[in-house]
Write a structure and sequence with these properties.
The structure is a homodimer of 438-residue chains. By secondary structure, chain A is of the alpha+beta class. Chain A contains 10 helices and 30 strands. In chain A, 43% of the residues are buried. At the A-B interface, strand 17, strand 18, strand 19, strand 21 and strand 22 of A face strand 17, strand 18, strand 19, strand 21 and strand 22 of B. Strand 19 of chain A pairs parallel with strand 17 of chain B.
């Protein structure tokens, strides 16, 4: 199975665990059988592999997520990088062209597109395989997934099928309705549109060429910024007569808010927290290494990270976005392809960061115009290159770098540094990258 | 007026703003007219000075508070250091001996003892002056303050006066009663015992000599650890026939819990916090530099510091102590006589701290057996001495110190350092102090 996972969004609704560079799909909140925690993207990737060990998985996403994806899924996962955010049609067209031109997938092969963030059982991925098989058997140009609705939601689009069979043709699509209309749709047998599409690779490429003037993947990538924002539903699905829908009745949850996310937490607390016995229906997620004490709370979520603290009534938690939009907060934590960083201290003319490099990884070779840096190695072993000079480092070593000097560090074992940045204009944008001669 | 302020307690009931070394009286939570915040001890000290510019103020406290007191009140305040915690009788005896032998106060002078933590109007200190004056006029051996009760509290001792005059003799003392008994006391005209005592210096010294075998202040200090734990009420007050009580009817609050403390907050929020409009009766104190977002909270207090996060129903907040007692948390923040420190990062074999030195101050000259240290100067100017070698430092300078090497730093302007400690056994107890040759 070729599967494209659409990984979008800044996920501010799950602040302070999500931020501009850590979308909600990267929060490690799902407890695995071995007691460790995994993120949405790790869970989905693992579930796909469980159902189809041979699956070719491609993640369609923006540049800002690439480091986090490699950090969580390793280097083998395919990534179709969107140069900027357009809507789902350009994203799916680009990822489809990427599959053909970069991965060499045959135009006859079926492709399944699905969102990266539904919380589902493994049977969902069995259903995706069935969608793929139906495309392969040429039963339709497009095969969609209809989710059996559990209540008359105003949040989803609806598909009204021609009949009540497990697989049926589609009468019509309905945009997000009000609750009353949703009830009526459901009484007519409507299903939620799960945002899943299966098609033959050639089909979407042809649709793309009809709408966009481009030659191949590289050309489409180069033109991406000029493409109009248009959804796949609007550009393709609603115009396609040879369309079918497969019903999925298993668990399916949209974990977009703290209220829904806490529903599926295996235990009420992740991290260091104490709840007294007058607390009821309280979830705490604490990413810091200091304790959270909760007393007398009812129906609440408490979420603590290096970015901030959220204390919210569960119902209210869905309305967080405008408040978070107003916060002008420096990014305090990020996972990168090579490891992670934590901001420890912010002063007017200095910034102190803890950098963790994974074994075998290294930073880009780079320099800064407007700041000096000091590395204090606190654990592990590695190699530092400063202006071409190589030097082995271990805990206790100090490396000082003036503005303009080129530097990198690679980890032999897991390497941790305290990096002190000093200067009048400290900015993540003050970075020049260079090739490192082998 | 000679006034002894009893400054006790670890103040765990106001965790996470108070901790083992920062008692509640040092939390800066009271807004002054100029918009700045002051602590309980700063507020009391300022109020005393307002009422009596000549007052000789002595703070009776443990060694652990000395740095914080100097940090908040300056170097001029008198401190009677208790070598260990005994009860109020030894503490008052020691401070009284200190006044005579160290400060040279005459034995005929009156002394007023009062707790450091009542939240009161300036008129309270006018009342203390009146207590002092009554002792001076020899109207009694001991003069106490009775607080007009506002409800039948179970938390306070009661004084039952002989009559209802503003100043009266005392019939009897009652320990903390249950609410029913408290009601009955109040109906008989009882007042709360405010823990205030005024006496002639000689009087308490004589009582001390009756109960303890000692010669002078130095001898009492040396024997302090061997003294029994006994309260001043039990040892002196309840046995004294020549005793009077002055009524105080002004504002008097015991700010021992979050519930009471938040009542007197001038504004509901201190620090970076956003409350949506469904919040009611919510107080937030945030000492971190990342935001707190509150949604849909009712009757709650949220308190955030480097030590941890408290989220509590206001009523419940009074029951915090046993939960905090269980927390085994490294001290993350402390005010010292020379400035302050923040723990930024804790690893198995390293600890990273931000040190702020006030201008003109310096650390002790010291060494560590089991850890190396690195100082990264991030702002200011100062002088470092390492194994007797002096060196001026400024932002960007790095000083490395091996275990065993003697070191200190003094600040010319406010000096900030990132200190990286490295070793297998990092402990605050691993410190040898030395004299620094001028």
């Amino acid at each position: 199975m070729n599967i494209i996972l659409l990984s979008g969004g800044s996920g501010k609704r799950l602040w302070p665990l999500s931020n501009e560079i850590r979308s909600k799909q990267f929060i490690k909140i799902f407890k695995k059988e071995n007691g460790e925690y995994e993120s949405m993207v790790q869970r989905v990737y693992r579930q796909i592999r469980t159902v189809d060990t041979e699956a070719v998985v491609t993640i369609a996403t923006s540049r800002t997520q690439v480091s986090a994806i490699h950090n969580q899924l390793g280097e083998d996962v395919g990534i179709s990088v969107e140069p900027c955010r357009r809507d789902t049609f350009p994203a799916i067209a680009l990822a489809t062209a990427w599959l053909k031109d970069i991965k060499g997938v045959d135009e006859d092969e079926p492709v399944v597109v699905c969102p990266v963030d539904p919380y589902v059982e493994d049977s969902y991925y069995e259903a995706l395989k069935e969608l793929s098989a139906q495309v392969e058997r040429n039963e339709a140009s497009l095969v969609l997934m209809g989710i059996e609705p559990t209540y008359p939601s105003e949040k989803y689009g609806y598909i009204i099928p021609a009949d009540k069979e497990a697989v049926s043709s589609v009468d019509t699509f309905k945009e997000k309705p009000d609750a009353e209309t949703a009830k009526e749709y459901i009484s007519r047998g409507a299903l939620w549109n799960g945002g899943v599409f299966a098609y033959r690779l050639r089909y979407v490429l042809e649709k793309a060429h009809e709408l966009i003037d481009f030659t191949d993947y590289a050309d489409l990538f180069a033109k991406y910024e000029t493409l109009p924002k248009i959804s796949f539903d609007y550009a393709v699905v609603e115009k396609e007569p040879r369309i079918r829908m497969l019903r999925y009745g298993g668990q399916w949850m949209d974990l977009g808010t703290w209220n829904t996310l806490t529903e599926i937490m295996a235990e009420p607390v992740i991290g260091d927290a104490v709840l007294n016995d007058t607390c009821e229906n309280v979830n705490v997620i604490n990413e810091l290494n200091v304790p959270v004490v909760c007393m007398g709370l009812k129906n609440m979520v408490v979420s603590v990270s290096a970015e901030g603290v959220l204390v919210s009534d569960k119902e209210q938690s869905g309305y967080i976005k405008p408040y978070v939009d107003k916060i002008e907060q420096q990014i305090m934590f990020a996972e990168k392809s090579w490891g992670s960083f934590h901001v420890l201290d912010v002063e007017e003319d200095s910034l102190t960061i803890k950098v963790t490099l994974n074994p075998g990884h290294r930073m880009n070779y780079h320099s800064h115009l407007h700041r000096d840096e000091i590395w204090n190695v606190i654990s592990g072993e590695g190699t530092v290159v400063v202006d071409g000079m190589e030097q082995n480092v271990k805990a206790g070593d100090v490396v000082t770098m003036q503005a303009g000097c080129r530097h990198t560090v690679s980890a032999v074992t897991e390497l941790k540094l305290i990096e002190v940045q000093l200067g009048k204009e400290i900015s993540v944008h003050d970075k020049q990258k260079f090739e490192l001669d082998a």
